[in-house]
Amino acid sequence: YPSNHAHHHGIWTPYTKAVFQGRTTDFWNMQNKKGEEQLRAVGRLWAGEVHGGFDAELRMTDLSGTAPIDALIDRWSVKAYAIKGSQKPMHVFDLTTTQSCATNDPLELPQYHYGSFGLRGPESWDGKDGARFLTSEGITDRKKGDNTRARWCYLGGKTEAGISGTAVLGYPDNFRFPMPLRLHPDMPYFSIVPQKLGAFSIQPGKPYVTRYRFVVTDGERILDFGPTAFRPYSPAEQATIRASLGRWLGDTRLYQRYVVLDDRSHFAHVNLRLSENPRHVAIDLDDQALRTACG
Predict the structure, then answer these.
(1) Which of 96, 130, 219, 283 is the most buried (most CB within 10 A)?
(2) What is the DSSP letter of 249?
(3) Phi-psi bin for 202: left (phi > 0), alpha (psi -120 to 50), beta?
(4) Of 259, 267, 265, whose CA–CA distance to 240 is shortest?
(5) Which sign does the torsion angle of CA 14, 18, 21, 25 carry?
(6) From the CB of residue 106, how many other CB atoms can be counted at a distance below 10 Å?
(7) CA distance 172 to 276
């Protein structure tokens, strides 16, 4: 963890300003001892020709009362894809967080300027000129990009490979999409902050689900990521999907659909999330991966 902000955990999803059982708590700044988020368990692990992943359970614990009490259960599901044939080597993985109340009390989230999701770069990117940012709106100046909204945000910097970094894409069905952003002025991190736009709460019995896709590669611009970053479905893919579903999914406005394309021992669940243009797919599997999944 960075020496000057040890609570920055690479990718992390706690809340900063929160109210639980009438007390103000803070799960983000763990050094203040008002609250914390900790890993409690790692669940299902899987691997296959198309993707592998794991499930995990974290807990946001309120420390502001007389005794620690779990306020929120934060379940992560991470799925990493085998991407082949792209113009540049890349790693692509999805993160789905499902946050549920751990008691019969809600978690209130007042309006605030950071918290909820964070992505942190290495300490070598510290300083105003150490990291590079790019949003889906074409903004590269982090001061201008702060307090804006975007469909995706890129964070990168100098590495042995030149410029390397990570783009985080929000799913269109996420709460308050496009994503409200906090771009830090001199540290290599950004936060996706729905509560920037106003207070909201997580209520008992009503899980709060958020989905993100990560693209890790060399190069600064998402447009350079290659044909698997954003492209139309090929005719072969359309035919395969039509045969599996009985229709071409692009004829609808559905955003996502998980389809079992293989009934062998390793099932191939292919994410067919559509973008705002129903004939395009963001970070979809390439032709070779699809052929592998279909046998």
Answers:
(1) 283
(2) G
(3) beta
(4) 259
(5) positive
(6) 17
(7) 8
